C-alpha cells in the first residue's frame, strides 16, 4: 500500500472513530431525555442497563453481571439493590451452587422492560423514518458486523459470555 492510500485509510478509520464517539454521546443524551415507566422512575441509567441485561439474558450471578456490563461489582450491587427495592428483580438460589444466588427479573420488571423497550424502538422508528428499507437493512447489517467485531476483540471471562450474546 502506498503512502497516499495509507493516509486515506487512516483518515477513514479516524472518521469512523469520531462518528462512533459522537453516536455514543448523542445516544446517552437521548436516553437521558426519555420518559420511562412509572415503576422504573428514579432509577439511574446503569440500573436500566442491568434490568435490560437480566430481562434478555438472565438470570445472572452478580459477579457475572458485573463482568458482562463492565461495571465494578459494588456499582452493580448498589444498582441491583435499587431494582430489588422497586420490585423489578429478585434474588433466587443458584440451582448449580446453593451457596450462591442469581438475580432474575420479576413480572413487574419484565413489564417495565418491555414498555421501555417499546419506547426505545419507537424512537428508532422515528429517527429512521426517512431511511429506505434497504438503507435500514444495510445499516443494521453493518452495525451488527461492527458489534460482532467489538465482541470478538473482548476477552471472554465468564462461562456463557459469548461474542454472539455480547453483540446483541
UniProtKB/TrEMBL annotation:
Residue intervals passing through the bilayer: none
Residue ranges constituting the HTH marR-type domain according to the UniProt record: 13-148
GO process annotations (BP): response to stress
One GO molecular-function entry: DNA binding
Keywords: DNA-binding, Transcription, Transcription regulation
Pfam families on file: MarR
Name of the protein in question: MarR family transcriptional regulator
Amino acid at each position: 500500500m502506498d503512502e497516499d492510500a495509507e493516509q486515506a485509510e487512516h483518515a477513514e478509520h479516524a472518521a469512523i472513530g469520531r462518528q462512533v464517539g459522537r453516536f455514543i454521546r448523542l445516544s446517552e443524551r437521548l436516553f437521558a431525555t426519555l420518559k420511562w415507566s412509572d415503576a422504573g422512575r428514579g432509577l439511574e441509567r446503569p440500573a436500566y442497563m442491568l434490568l435490560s441485561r437480566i430481562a434478555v439474558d438472565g438470570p445472572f450471578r452478580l459477579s457475572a453481571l458485573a463482568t458482562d456490563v463492565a461495571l465494578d461489582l459494588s456499582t452493580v450491587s448498589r444498582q441491583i439493590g435499587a431494582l430489588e427495592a422497586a420490585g423489578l428483580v429478585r434474588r433466587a438460589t443458584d440451582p448449580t451452587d446453593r451457596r450462591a444466588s442469581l438475580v432474575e427479573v420479576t413480572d413487574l420488571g419484565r413489564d417495565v422492560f418491555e414498555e421501555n423497550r417499546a419506547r426505545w424502538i419507537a424512537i428508532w422508528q422515528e429517527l429512521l423514518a426517512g431511511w429506505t428499507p434497504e438503507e435500514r437493512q444495510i445499516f443494521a447489517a453493518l452495525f451488527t458486523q461492527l458489534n460482532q467485531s467489538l465482541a470478538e476483540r473482548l476477552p471472554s471471562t465468564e462461562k456463557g459470555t459469548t461474542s454472539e450474546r455480547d453483540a446483541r
